[in-house]
Design brief:
The chain is mostly helical. The protein contains 8 helices and no strands. The chain starts with a helix and ends with a helix.
Length: 186
C-alpha cells in the first residue's frame, strides 16, 4: 500500500458502525436481518470496510459479495453515518451504489468486475478474500432468489438438496404438513 492508502485503511479500520448509546446496534440489526451470528457479522463488516477501501483505490469499479452488499445496503439507510461520517470524513469522497440495469451485458460486466476485485484484494491485503463471505462467481450471481420473510408469521423449511420434480416436492410437503397437523391436533 502507498502512504495515502495506508492512511485511508487506518481511518477505515478505526471507523465504528455501532453506536454505543443504542439498544439495537448496526451489527445486531445486520445479523438479525440476515440470520447471521454476531461473529460472522463482525467479519462481514470488516470485509465491507475492505470493499470500501478497494472502491477508493481501484481505477475500475468494484463489485461486492452478497454479504458485503447486505452490509452496504443497511449502511445506506443510516444516512448520516454513511454520507457524513463515512463518505465525507473517512473516505473524503462519495461512494454511490449502482445496481445492475439487467441483461446479459450487465451480467458479464459485473462478473468481470467481481473477478477483478478478487485480484485487487489479494494485491492490497496479501491474501485471498475469505470464501465464506466472498463466494465464487457462480454462487455470487446465481444464488440470488431472496425475499424478506416475516418469521413470526411463516415457517421456513429448507429444501432438500435432492432435485425433485415440483409435483413430487409438493406431495412431500403436503404429506409432512398433514402429519404435523394431525399430531398437533391429537
Amino acid at each position: 500500500m502507498t502512504k495515502t492508502e495506508t492512511l485511508l485503511w487506518n481511518r477505515l479500520e478505526a471507523y465504528q458502525l455501532d453506536e454505543t448509546d443504542v439498544r439495537l446496534t448496526f451489527s445486531q440489526r445486520l445479523a438479525r436481518e440476515n440470520g447471521w451470528n454476531l461473529n460472522y457479522t463482525q467479519r462481514v463488516i470488516e470485509e465491507y470496510k475492505k470493499f470500501l477501501f478497494l472502491c477508493c483505490t481501484s481505477p475500475d469499479p468494484v463489485t461486492p459479495s452478497d454479504p458485503v452488499d447486505q452490509a452496504w445496503h443497511l449502511h445506506l439507510t443510516y444516512t448520516k453515518s454513511y454520507w457524513n461520517d463515512l463518505c465525507k470524513n473517512i473516505l473524503e469522497r462519495e461512494i454511490h451504489h449502482n445496481p445492475t440495469r439487467g441483461g446479459k451485458e450487465e451480467q458479464q460486466k459485473f462478473n468481470n468486475l467481481y473477478t477483478g476485485l478478487h485480484h485487487m484484494y489479494f494485491e492490497k491485503f496479501g491474501m485471498n478474500p475469505p470464501p465464506d463471505i466472498w463466494h465464487d462467481n457462480n454462487t455470487r450471481f446465481t444464488d440470488i432468489n431472496f425475499q424478506r420473510v416475516n418469521l413470526s408469521k411463516y415457517w421456513l423449511i429448507k429444501k432438500p438438496d435432492i432435485k425433485f420434480k415440483p409435483a413430487v416436492f409438493t406431495f412431500i410437503l403436503m404429506l409432512a404438513a398433514t402429519v404435523f397437523l394431525s399430531s398437533a391436533l391429537s
